[in-house]
């Protein structure tokens, strides 16, 4: 993979081993933390140690195109990028506290299309504070919407969050927070719509990066929406009671080009 991403080359194919790890990390969790695969955001199992915890985590320490990053506006290249076409449909609420975040597993059939490629929404989850920074600034939270194409290539849409007005989707999710870690909760007769996480302006930054959690597999296409969404202070605080800090530190850019849509 070249050290930059253009829309014509979105989602360069992951190797088979990396793809397996990536999908295990980004789809439903059978348990909060499997024996021998413990990692966290602090101490001896925190981000600076991930690469040494397991052989399959080695990319966390050795990779050169790691995420998240600090997006420096003075270094971003404006490019004639096409917009992201979001085609999100309602989904039955399937929510899990997987031991690292709150994750919502999404029904098939919701997609994004960009640069002629289509990716299906698999799940979304949250970090506090935001993992991505803009000109050195963190946001209160970030939502990561994880997508996969028919070949297994991954694309993540990051929606930055600042405190402000309440979000109706978050209000629904937080009213059904699981009491037990590692068990997916299927909430009968409750439909959600991931589109309620999206700002009206969908302009974005884009670059090639990695998963932000072990195994930190690379060749993931990132779209960071420029306009943040708002959650209320109470909604942010409710998440913080469970996860006061679950953000990986920003990683070196290592010559990658960050592009922005008009």
Explain what you see.
- This protein has a single domain, classed as Carbonic Anhydrase II (Roll).
- It is of the alpha+beta class.
- Strands 2, 3, 4, 5, 6, 7, 9, 10, 11, 12, 13, 14 and 15 form a 13-stranded mixed sheet that branches. A two-stranded parallel sheet has the order 1-8.
- It contains five helices and 15 strands.
Q: Uncertain spans, ≥5 residues at pLDDT below 50?
A: 1-36
> Total domains, how many?
1
Strand content: 25-35%
* CATH superfamily grouping: Alpha carbonic anhydrase
What's the total count of β strands?
15
Look up the CATH topology.
Carbonic Anhydrase II
Helix content estimate: 10-25%
The total count of helices amounts to 5
Please outline the major beta sheet. 13 strands, mixed
What is the SS-derived class?
Answer: alpha+beta
> What average pLDDT do the residues reach?
89
